[in-house]
Design goal:
Elements lengths: L1 H4 L5 H35 L10 H10 L16
Length: 81
Amino acid sequence: MSLRADPRTDAADVRARATAKLEEVDAKIRQLQRIREALEALVAACPGHGALGGCSIMDALAANESPDAGGARFRTGNGSS
């Protein structure tokens, strides 16, 4: 660790870095929870049978790939992503 190599480092520095890393992890968890919620909504809206033309999951993926998607991830019928 680079912290050990620096003799000026103290426990407060280590704690600050660990706190920052914890905030990064929490942000990633929130992002994954949003993705999970979007996927749950897509799966719930999908009839699970029939032609792909009526598949809400495929529709959401196609909307995500369109140039006007504006960086949206998965779109669901309720406007969330």
